[in-house]
Amino acid sequence: MSIKSLKGWKEIPIGGLIPEAGNSAQYETGGWRTYRPVVDRDACKNCLFCWIYCPDSAVMVEDEKIKGIDLRYCKGCGICAQECPAKAIQMIEEAKL
Amino acid sequence: MGKPVAMTGNIAVANAMRQINPDVCAAYPITPSTEIMQQFASFVADGKVDTELVTVESEHSAMSACIGASAAGGRVMTATSANGLALMWEMLYIASGNRLPIVMMVVNRALSAPINIHGDHSDGMGARDSGWIQFYSEDGQEAYDNLIQAMIIGQNKDVRLPVMVGMDGFIISHSIENLEMLSDQQAKDFIGEYIPFYPLLNIKKPVTYGPLDLQDYYSEHKRQQTEGMRAAKPVILKTAQDFAALSGRKYGFFEPYRLEDAEIGILTLGSSAGTTRYVVDLMRDRGIKAGMVKLRVFRPFPMEELQEALGHLKALAVMDRCDSFGAAGGPVFSEVRSSLYDQPNRPKVVNYIYGLGGRDLGISHIEQVIGDLQKIKETGKVEELITYLTVRE
After folding, report:
1. Which residues of B touch A3 (CB under 8 A)?
2. Which fold has domain A28-96?
3. What is the domain partition of chain A in residue ranges?
4. Which fold has domain B254-388?
5. Which residues of B324-361 are buried (b: 16+ CB within 10 A; e: fewer)?
6. What pLDDT is recorded for position A22?
7. Which of A51, A54, B272, B278 ranks highest by number of CB atoms within 10 Å?
8. How confident is the model at residue A5, as a pLDDT?
């Protein structure tokens, strides 16, 4: 998220007030990430443990299969890699990617 | 014009609160403000107000409860002094940061240690950066009038800031004076209906108060607070105008007294203005062109207006009933002096720290200040920039 895309002080509700509910999807926390989870497709058994454990619901699933990691929200916490029974997820430093 | 009544500053304030009839009042007693809540609790018990009075276990809790009630959508008030205000510290910033227009009477008192229960401005001045609008009152009448007006100013849609109204502990809070109150109906009409701003209790429109606000938006929210303070200036003046039409009593950011043709002046705030006004009259009788400014609004600080009012003086003394240890003089002094820096013929400005812990400021002390100012006017030289008045060497 570039600083230029953020709103100025005249455009936002005063006092940090959030005037609507259910809007956390608008808050993209992917920018916090230092390590990115990289899935080894061959090793992955699609057990969906990563999908269950991910605190940010950043594991994307389609037809009961892992489709990828939503990098807009993944903070790089590494819980998925820790919990993966197949050791199919590696945490790689963003700078090296 | 209401009929004159005799009451202490505290009882006058309690009556203003009765007329305002807040939805919620959370308070914890502390000298010298205790009498306000004691009297107000009687009003609650006697059914004179509809207020939910929350008796909490500390001032931190008092302000926390006020914040919750204000966010919920209520009209909220409290009162405190000195160490009570100090214990609220964390919550003061949360009230202003959340833009909650809580109105609080601060009966100004010295901060411990050593322990002292008497009047000075250390408590209020310490909170000067907390984002609250600040009034200081000369007497019980002003305390009453300021509190009524504070209610309207804080809740204004462009302002949305909490307001603290100060009066000097014991000197005003416990002295019986004549004053005039509005009738209950007049006060009610003047204050008007409270229109809450995103009330938490509106379950049809859920909102979040006080979320996490990091490097991306915190600065913008602080900038908004400054804008709230700027917007408060015209609102303070408009409210004063409306109040004058109702009561006949006129207010501004400050009260200039015999200032227009003055060569030397004293700027003060709170109860010492009465003594200073008396000495100014004495000096005028002796042909000395002295004047006074009594500052009523300290936040927002009326910088441009003071430049206009004080720029023509040759010498000015700023009185601080509070020390800012290790600073470039007292808090009022440093801001007044800074305000005058860009004036082409700015006066020499000196500072007097006085009256700490309720120490009396007498006529002779103000005469001494006038004597010093006369010398500065004649020589153009300042011998002592910051003087500790009313202190034994």
Report:
1. 216
2. Alpha-Beta Plaits (3.30.70)
3. 28-96
4. Rossmann fold (3.40.50)
5. beeeebbbbbbbbbebbeeeeebbbbbbbbbbbbbbeb
6. 85
7. B272
8. 83
Structural Rg of chain B based on CA atoms: 21
Size of interface A-B (CB pairs under 8 A): 54
Nearest CA in chain B to A19: B207
Q: How distant is the Cα of A20 from the closest Cα of chain B, in angstroms?
A: 5
User: What sections of chain B are H helices per DSSP?
Assistant: 9-20, 34-45, 59-72, 82-87, 89-97, 122-126, 140-155, 184-191, 218-247, 272-285, 303-310, 331-340, 363-379
Residue B178 has pLDDT above 70, yes or no: yes
Rounded alpha-carbon distances, angstroms, from residue B2 to A7, B11, B197:
51, 17, 33
B220/A7 CB distance under 8 A: yes
CB–CB of A16 and B98 under 8 A? Answer: yes
User: How far is A95 from A97, CA to CA, in rounded Å?
Assistant: 6
> Which tens digit of pLDDT belongs to each residue from B293-339?
999 999 999 999 999 999 999 999 999 999 999 999 999 999 999 99
Q: Distance (Å) from the C-alpha of residue B76 to the closest C-alpha of chain A?
A: 18
Please give the model's pTM, rounded to 2 decimal places: 0.92
**For B265-289, what is each residue's pLDDT tens digit?**
999 999 999 999 999 999 999 999 9
Superfamily of domain B4-247: Thiamin diphosphate (ThDP)-binding fold, Pyr/PP domains (3.40.50.970)
User: ipTM of this complex > 0.85?
Assistant: yes
Inter-chain residue contact B224 with A8, CB threshold 8 Å: no
For residue B363, the SS3 value is: helix
List every span in chain B annotated with CATH 3.40.50.970: 4-247
Q: What is the pLDDT of residues B38-96, one digit of tens each?
A: 999 999 999 999 999 999 999 999 999 999 999 999 999 999 999 999 999 999 999 99
